[in-house]
Amino acid sequence: MEPNDKELRQQLSRGPLSRNGFDDRLRKRIEDALDRPTRRPSFFARVGWNGAGVAAILGLLLAFGIWQWTVPGPSAERFAEDPAMQTATTQDAKLFSDANAQIRSVLLLGLREDREDQGNVVSSYRTLMIAPQDGQFAVTASGDGIVMPYKQNFWKIEAVTSGDKGTLSQTLKAYQANGKGAVTPAQAEAIPVSDVGMVERLTFVGNRYVSVVQNRVSAPNAQFRWVKHIEQLAADASRVSYEPTAESHVMLEDVLKAGDTATPSVQAHTEQWSIIRRTGNWTAAAEEAKDGKGATDAFAPFDNEALVELSAPLPDEYKNYDTLSISWSQIRKIVPQAEDAFTSPNEDMLAVVTGDQILVYPYQQLNGRDHPLSIRLADGETVVMAQWTSNIKYVDNWKKQVAAILNPTPETQLQ
Predict the structure, then answer these.
(1) How many CB atoms lie within 10 A of CB 247?
(2) Which residue ranges run through the membrane (predicted)?
(3) Which residues pair with 133 in a beta bridge?
(4) Residues 291 and 46 sit within 8 Å (Cβ to Cβ)
């Protein structure tokens, strides 16, 4: 009989974990998996990993020596002396305990707020810069639209709404906002955007790439999903008509071939796919393959229920830094209502998403738990971008450049 989560936790607590290679790192990974909220099964899980995968995992655990654990386990003295059994307590003790901890990370956070208009979803966006200020984290700049770092500069994405009430359409436009080749705010305002009876919104922004959901105004439930380069998004704003087969995009197969892992057996000609947020990470998702589906269906719309996660991880060039440096059990001890979280590459910032706010902690800093930065979220507002700079030499540049884009002054507009 396969053990459930409760039985696995009991096994994990019974004895030394360093036997036959079952070390503290593996224990932490198992605990994290047990703590992580349940997700909808991936497509690959649905097509054959339900039983075989579990059996394989249990076989590996047996190989690592779980079978050697004894009941009732080690004595209290041995438990106290075992470093592996003390790990969780030690890790918890390290949080908010360093009197000399320095904070030096900057987080660019992109948020999307939706409202419904005659069955269509119309969105607004804002960007927040969270950066060190007077020894604490603070929102040092904020403004409408999404400001994303790309190469050595920043680009801005704006939602342009047109049409009458009841027939609103919305198109995304993008442009380089600073550096050589940047457009001025006046030039950005004059960028032509065509009203083609279509609504589109962002699900993800990162590095060079964006994930977009589109639908015709007349068919709000028939959705099209694309991943594009930021340059493709910029060029598509001037489309003269909406034809899904003409939308520029990046195919899923091309993305996975560029990664470090082997390409899984995804549906051939996967033109449409998304990058979406699941608790703790960004993940690729696509339409669930159906028997007999051919390449001619690659540009057909589908609904949300057909969207399933893929098991293959995204290459780093798509999602940038996307790693939690502390476990979900630790995060929930800090914020029991946590629904999602982000940690910085420097391991000095923890941003925890709850239902109505984001709480930002300097989680190494002594007493850093006492006064988190609180960012109020609008009803249903979601994170579509989390971009970091961890290099101290870029912190001031990011703060100045992003502030000039989000809150331009006459002086910065002349630069």
Answers:
(1) 19
(2) 47-69
(3) 136
(4) no
Sign of the four-CA dihedral 215, 216, 222, 225: negative
* Edge-to-edge strand list for the sheet holding 136-144: 136-144, 120-133, 106-117, 382-389
What's the pTM?
Answer: 0.76
Count H helices, E strands: the chain? 13, 17
Task: Determine the 3-state secondary structure of 380 from DSSP.
Answer: coil
Rounded Cα distance between 350 and 352, Å, is: 6
Sheet of strand 198-206: strand arrangement: 146-150, 153-162, 169-176, 198-206, 209-216, 224-229
Predicted confidence band at 337 (pLDDT cuts at 50, 70, 90)?
Answer: very high
DSSP 296: G
Specify whether the CB–CB gap between 188 and 406 falls below 8 A. Answer: no
How many residues are listed for the chain in this entry? 415
Can you tell me the distance from the alpha carbon of 377 to that of 353, in angstroms, rounded to the nearest whole number?
Answer: 9
* Cβ pair 95, 372 in contact under 8 A: no
Tell me the one-letter amino acid at 177: A
- Give the residue extent of every domain in the chain: 5-94, 108-318, 328-413
Residue-wise pLDDT for 66-104, tens only, equals: 333 333 333 333 334 444 334 445 566 679 999 999 999
Burial degree of 162 (CB within 10 A; 0-12, 13-18, 19+): middle
Sole residue written with tokens 């989560």: 5
Furthest C-alpha separation in the chain: 75
- 260 Cβ contact list (under 8 Å, min separation 6): 315
CB 77 within 8 A of CB 343: no
Lookup: tokens for 22: 């079952």
- In Å, what is the CA distance from 413 to each residue of 189, 196, 233, 283, 398? 13, 31, 24, 37, 17
Q: Share the mean pLDDT of the chain.
A: 78
232-242 burial: b if 16+ Cβ within 10 Å, else e? bbbebbebeeb
CA distances from 97 to 114, 318, 324 (A): 40, 34, 19
Cα 35 to Cα 5: distance, rounded to the nearest angstrom: 9
- Residue labelled with tokens 């209502």: 337
Tell me the β-bridge partners of 350. 343, 361
Closest by Cα among 279, 376, 388, 380 to 331: 279
